[in-house]
């Protein structure tokens, strides 16, 4: 009986939201509602919900899409990286934004070789009009950019890219 009581007490606090991943003619999009017969249901915790909005980015000279943002109020520039599974920030950004401790450490293989990583939680990340709280980020030393916004965030949004323009929206 005590075990059942604990389950009922915990479940209401664990609220989850949904997103859908869809592929249509080789283009992958993410949205808050099913976008076709092949929609793949994704789940994420509500305490990491992303605020509504829209962001339009233009490809830069290095053929990247960059979005202005913040980590715990510290201004940075994110590279939008649909090939990265998670969001990554540089050691310098982590220090400037007040992230002082790691929940886990280890090593990760990057394009520049194997490097030491730190995993921590950023209290708030913004990019464009969007805000996300309590996001787990990987911190890497010697990055040549402030941060990479990965699919842990982007999969929850609708992303369209055409002719050097990327549109990111909450729906």
Any descriptors?
171 residues, mainly beta, 3 helices, 11% helix, 51% strand, disordered N terminus
Folded structure, characterized:
This protein is mainly beta. Helices cover 11% and strands 51% of the residues. The strands form 3 sheets. The protein has a 6-stranded mixed barrel with strand order 5-6-11-7-10-9. The protein has a 3-stranded antiparallel β-sheet with strand order 2-1-3, with no helix packed on it. The chain has a 3-stranded antiparallel β-sheet with strand order 4-13-12, with no helix packed on it.
Strand order, largest beta sheet: 5-6-11-7-10-9
Oligomer: single chain
Radius of gyration: 17 Å
What is the structural class? mainly beta
Question: Describe the biggest sheet?
Answer: 6 strands, mixed, barrel
Unreliable runs: 1-18, 43-47
What average pLDDT do the residues reach?
Answer: 79
Tell me the strand percentage band. Answer: over 45%
Q: What's the total number of strands?
A: 13
Following the backbone from N to C, one meets helices and strands in this order, namely HEEEEEEEHEEEEHEE
Set down the secondary structure blueprint.
Elements: H1 2-10, E1 16-24, E2 27-31, E3 40-45, E4 54-58, E5 66-71, E6 74-80, E7 88-90, H2 91-96, E8 104-110, E9 113-127, E10 130-140, E11 147-149, H3 151-154, E12 158-162, E13 165-169
Parallel strand pairs: 6-11, 7-10
Antiparallel strand pairs: 1-2, 1-3, 4-13, 5-6, 5-9, 7-11, 8-9, 9-10, 12-13
